[in-house]
Amino acid sequence: MQKDLFRKKSIQKILKDSNEGFGDATHHSLSKVLGVRDLTFMGIAAVVGAGIFSTIGEAAFNGGPGVSILFIITAITCGFSALCYAEFASRIPVSGSAYTYAYASFGELIAWIIGWDLLMEYAIGNIAVAISWSGYFVNLLKGFNIQMPAYLTLDYLSAYQAHKTLLGNGGDIAKLSETAKTAAEAWATAPAIGNLRLIADLPALLIVLLITVLVYVGIRETKRATNVMVVIKIGVVLAVIAIGFFYVTPENWHPFLPNGFGGMMKGVSGVFFAYIGFDAISTTAEECRNPQRDLPRGMVYSLIICTVLYILVALVLTGMVNYRELAVADPLAFVFERVGLNKISYVISISAVIATASVLLIFQMGQPRIWMSMSRDGLLPKAFARVHPKYKTPSFATIVTGIAVAVPALFMNLTEVTDLTSIGTLFAFVLVCGGVLLLPKEETAQTNKRFRMPYINGKWIVPLLFLIGVTVFHDNLLNHFDFSDGWLVVREKLPLYVYLILALIISILSFTKSLSLIPVLGLLSCGYLMTELGYVNWLRFLIWLGIGLVIYFGYSYKNSKLNKTADE
Predict the structure, then answer these.
(1) CATH topology of domain 2-22+35-144+204-441
(2) Which of 50, 149, 148, 53 is nearest to 349 (CA)?
(3) How far apart, in Å, do the first and last CA atoms of the chain sit?
């Protein structure tokens, strides 16, 4: 059975299955309409969104002006992963992203785990984006003097918690924050059936339904909408940077790292959350005209453009106001209000609505294609692989994705969603980087016609970097092995202990096997960022993976196409 759990699909079989599907009426080819410009725009659409309009504020509050360094660190980390994704995408130009790549390199069980992980990442990320979009949209309506009832603009739990806080304050609403005041108002004014208050985030539901319809009716329509939204929001971001530099006070950049390196790293989940979208490009492989050439270019181009924009925006934000003032939900609009440019603040609010909608669009497009790939392999029911005969999109999977995001977005409170989404994405990146190291060598005429990740021998470099890291940070590492603070503190350090052991093993393997440097650096850097996300997020993540394993052994293992082929 152990051998069966790690059975691999050859690259040739993956390509064959993507062309044949199930061999019945449920399968139709996807439309090949995407070029390198479209893929680059999709990457920008996915990356320039909630990060640049919201989470960058909290990251700047923790890291000060030095958060721009964190964007560079994260971009380099993502760059290593992007090159690994590009290598896979050029060799396996099939929908499914990291799931498909893991099937070819690690085997079926790991492929299922990463597929299940990606479903969590996309679904929870989309719920968060939908809720964020709702907040921007409601604020935008207020600019037109349109006031939605509070009980139709947020979730039930937030309203209930604000109500309890108000009661604890003796009914003094002045002691509540503006957000809590709105939530308390929602509870007080909501219609009720018995003791049940009818409170739900209606705008979040509507945007998910609208985006789902757009994704359902075709990739061409999705492409056109994406391109238009990207042009608008990039124009606004460039205008913000250009205008904002005139209001920068250089004194605000001193000290550059007010809370040290550790304070800067507190913003890692918020910063990394900004970058998680670029891997969604790889799910469109079967809809590219020339995936082996265009997919790698689209990933790298979008990553470079977005990194430059993020660094410039971070410098403008922290230069216009003191970093201590940036712990707000809408930092871009806030800083322009702070310097008296209220009209620009209003334009930013419009752009935020467009930007978050484009992120939602790309993620809603990516998730059904992962469902489809898993279904083709028999790990999910056949219905998920159904492609609409007219629209050429994974129809059933798109509908299920819409429901899975729209319904929770009505009621959920996701204050810590960025951490959970980030840990899932980093896990995918780790497996993709590790998977490249396991790919068989190519000996075909196609080798020189596609992207090839440059090989740099890591035999001496990786062990040397490990020794340098241990030497430079040995004092900090020794503090991590101080167990006198009790279990509650030690458990937060558990991910780091595991990481140090794995880093040592990888360093030894790099020396003995002459491993390629780029995927090894991607694996190590993503693995380290995972250690920064805390015990609670790891626990939630492992619970989610546990649920996935129950489904795998209850259904997917028996129905796997590889299993049925072996039986025959």
Answers:
(1) Amino acid/polyamine transporter I (1.20.1740)
(2) 53
(3) 17
